[in-house]
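Continuing from the previous page of notes. For each protein in this section, the sequence appears first, followed by its structure tokens. Read the first protein now.
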Amino acid sequence: MSGELRVDRAAGRWVLAATVGGSGLAMLDSTVVNVALERLGRDLNADFAALQWVVNGYTLSLAALILLGGALGDRFGRRRVFLVGIVWFAVASALCGLAPTAGLLVAGRVLQGIGGALLTPGSLALIAASFRPQDRSRAIGAWSGLGGVAGAIGPFVGGALVDWTWRAVFWINVPVAVAVILITLRHVPESRDPDATGGIDLLGAALAVVGLGGITFALTEIGTAGAGQTVLVSGAVGVLAMVAFLVVEHRSPHPLVPLSMFRDPLFSGTNAVTLLLYGALGVFFFLLMLQMQTVAGFSPTVSGTALLPITALMLLLSARAGALADRIGPRPLMTVGPLLAAGGFLLAIRVGPGASYLTDVLPATVLLGLGLAATVAPLTATVLASADEHHAGIASGINNAVARSAGLLAVAVIPVAAGLGGADYTDPAVYDAGFRRAMLIGAVLLVVSSAMSAVLIRPARTVAPASKPTEPVATPAASTSAVAPLRLAECAHCGVAGPQLHPGPSEPAAPAGPGTARP
């Protein structure tokens, strides 16, 4: 019967619950922690650089290792790696919640990012492997919608927790992770990529961590008094590691990042646009939460609602933007979208002393949400169109890693360029001036990304259609046993932290526990 699951219907619901819970943990930790920065900074007597590392410690390990996490899942089992990631994430979250100093909190955040890199790639791939091809779009639509709801209410709930204690933002992850672990063990079947038989590029992953870490440290510390030699050494180590990374990827028979993909001008251009777009977004979400609490005097709960319009608009409009891009091409939306987002940055400058949520904060976040909704689905579709079906997973994985790396580097350098450092976040007048400069810099990045879209996004072939969640994905007529690759062009909650991750190849999985028998 059409609409049957590879797993039975009850087990299918459990698969959705596990994957939504897992991906939600990693996604929300990219945003909710921003709401807690002001309170945890005061409690731990942290300077501004420490707050940058609370955000960037997580982003660094996640960005550098997310491709490795996907490769490990394909090779050793997505369910297994997903479970390891969830357990790792829960333990790291507990360490963050107990951290007595800013340094130990940053260490916990780095560990959280490793867990996120292990669990994030497998979330959608487990759905792709568990549902029949004709049901996958509906299942992914449910995953996207439920994730969108979680993304919308998460920062609000996080703000309420921060009003009690900032540590609860991390503690809340533990019971959710325990529930996901139990569901996964009981109901989620195992799956692998049978073609993933080569080696794992561990050296490339290690060099990516060292390279991004060294460069980020140098950029963060560049404005710190007496850190001149340290900055030079860490920056040099980071640059050399990144050069070595490129050499290793060029020579490796199984690279994490196949450099040949960047020969395609469409793929390179889309990633260049991604770099500027998500660099600006990373700074916006980091600085706005501090601005609302330190300068405007909003509570953490009210500050958390600032992200609600953005996620809600993406939930409502991303699929429509993908469908429109399919008709008119991605370039118009990828040109207009960043300009709308730039307008949101400029409106955010009005969020100052005595600001009103309705007249100052809401217009800025609504305009930014409209810009993101217009941009992310066409951007994802363009990335997928630049690669053949076999490389769709790695193409979207690279694009996601570029987006997270952009946020990492921007959070390190733009506040410094705007004159923020030390204890500035505790001084409303000083922080307000730096925030305004940072928003102007972010707006410029978005305008440049718009111009780059207008010039570089010239696909040589038709962009893959943005399938709606309610429409089935076609199965190749030549093979009823093969699993059709998914062509995803929108995700209601992915765009805030990074573009959509394509699940890559997914083969039928052997039964792996009660409730997972397949017809």
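Done with the first. The second protein uses the same format. Note its length before scrolling.
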Amino acid sequence: MSFPVQPSQPVKSSGALVSVSAAVAAILMLHANSARADDVPCTYSAPANGTQSCTAQLKGVDTPDQTTWDHDGNGHSATTPGGTTNPLNFSLTSAPPGPLSSVDVDTTGGKGGYGYHADPVDTGFYRTGGNGSQGGAAGDITATLGSDAGAYSSTSGVAALTINSQGGAGGGSGLGSSLQATAGTAGAAGNGGNITASVDGNWRGAAAANSAVISTQGGTGGPGASWNKHEIGLSGSGGNGAVGGNGGNVVLTITNNKGGGNNQFNAGGGVLVQSVGGAGGAGGNGEAVDGTTGGNGAAGGNAGTVVATIGSNVIVAETADNGAALKVLSQGGVGGVGGSNGGSGGTAGAGGNAGDVSVVVEGGLLDSLGAYAPGLLAQSAGGNGGDGGAPSKWVVGPNGGAGSMGGTAGNVSVTGSNVTINTGQYVNPTAAEGDTGVMAQSIGGGGGSGSASTGVFAVGGSGGNAVDGKNATVDLQSQITTFGFHADGIAVQSIGGGGGKGGDATGDGAGFQLVVGGTAGGGGAGATATLTNEAGSVITTNGDHASGLVVQSIGGGGGDGGAAYSKSKGVGFDANMSVGGSGGAGGDGGVVTFANQTTNAAEVTTHGSDSYGILAQSIGGGGGVGGMSTSKAQSYGTQAIPDLPSIALSAALGGAGGVAGGGSSVTVGNQGLIMTTGGESTGILAQSIGGGGGAGGDATASSTATGGKFNLAATLTFGGTGGAGGSGGVVNATNSGMILTTGESADGMLVQSVGGGGGAGGSGDSKASASGDNTSVSTSFSLGGNGGGGGDAQSVIASNKGGAIITLGDGAIGIGAQAVGGGGGSAGGAAASTKGDFSADVTLGGQGGLRWQQLES
């Protein structure tokens, strides 16, 4: 039951801040039935401009930060965690006393306290930094909003209805003394609570407001302590971050029990439903001296499962760009970045995992009029891995911090019937920017990038590996109309994350120098993507590159290897070597098929160019490019030592390109009606495509020797090997309905298995020059990298079983079936030049990639 109360002063109760009336209500409830949850009614603000807000909150107490050390010089720890809150029950089922500007239902965990650093002037051994304390967990929320509830928000960024559970942030750590190798321990973040909500009513807002936001989020993990130049005497290594908090589970039901158009979710922004993991704590920065390290970043928090059910009479409308009428999201937290500035950069934290996302529609209307704003977006995305920390350039042997792996995605499904969805606006269909009617995506977290490194003997950080996507499914009976470029009717995608880039390495030294670019991370694979457009559906798109039905499984691309740039000078002798990092492997595309008997059992019409009736693809990710390598050595004689020779040696090795991912099987069917009117708008385009192999890195080296008793210059270069292309998979397309195309080059069915091309080999280019009054000898050897082999094609089947295929445009064929293998990568060239009294150079180009093996189709 809900009733108005006057604003009152907060009081402390069970570690939470609640209003006096809320505390009384909770106590009465406890006496009545020993319930652990607090029944919190509205606390109404003082009326302003004819409206007032309704707030129901439970907030945990923040823990104070520590600011002193003990009598021994140890930094004090924050021993008390942030306050947690009880679960919150909220109900607003009767009409409020007056118009409301917003309703805010919230549980918030208290912030953890920061530990303090050790006494920087204490000369004792092993003085410890203080620990940060854990953030408080937010309580679960159970909310019921009846058909008489509602609000209108005219405030930018404030939703008409907000239901939010936010975990508290963890506290940071303090540094120990210079003789204490580690800092205190940072505090983990608090978790967001679970949300169970049943929402009816009239929720509206202005252009910059959402109609409703239902969100649970983990707090941010505590950061590791950083070195401070103003506090000499403390440890030079940064502290490690702490893990982010988890987002809770969400179960949301939206209804319109009154029916009609009086109750709507109607604002600039639409309805956002999400569970988000908190970001991992960042590693602390170190001191720029040898032997120190940046702190490690921590893993992001995991997100929970999100389930949304949309009732038969629900109306959701939005007008803002880059939004969605209904967005349902589970997003893992991003990994914490590694600390910088030490002799070695800190390693990053892994991305958090995402939960499953399920949307069930029982009817209703979704209108999304903004640009790049889908009608319904259901997405599960693993958190990206953090980036590695950058080392100082003032140390010997700086090592870039490694990027970390991404988080796993969850499964995504959109099912139901009788829903009407409209996106975009009819202004000029060929120029307007709308978006897809229904988009379901499962996306693996991308790998973090390795840090670049600069200095003597620099090594770039390695990139993190990406993670696979999970299954994505749409099985829907709907009426969908879209306007705008690339505004597909329904799109289903399972996408592997992209591999992290390897860090570049740059060095400038004297006498001897070696730099190595970081190795890249591999891409994640796509999983199974399934789609069925059920009987009774009508899908219509109005715009170029706007297909009716799109179902794709896409492997993530491998990261690029780090480049290596090195030069050095020396008196009498100088040697220099640079090695480019290898590119990461691409992920495989997954299986593409239908959810229930066929892909299309209804009516699909497209009115733009390059707008297919059905586009079904499994695509392997491309291999990453190998890092290029450049090396330059210079040696000089000196009159101070007339018998001193001058010798310069230089070598450069390009990084290998990554192997590409392959495509998997594609199965597509049509039992309904497909009509396309635009040029090159094929009725059914079904493809399995292998990714292209990564190109090998180029290698360039030069050496110069002058002014010695004897002058010798020698160079060596090896271009990187190209990566192999991925194979295409088996493709099977069947038509038993009707396909009608009227545009030029708009085929009825085109079915293809295509192998990816091999990556090109890197080139080698070497130069050697020796000169002076005495004997000068130069030699140069250059080898181009081999090209990668092309990927195979697999069998394809295109069948017309009792159906009709009619093409009316010029150059439009009825059925096309192709199995095309990938070409081998071109060989890397080689070039060499020498200068001296005696000189010799050798060049050898690489070998081209193997040709694909032809298969029968």
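What the second structure shows: The CA atoms of residues 463 and 500 lie 4 Å apart. The chain has one helix and 54 strands. We return to this in next week's lecture.
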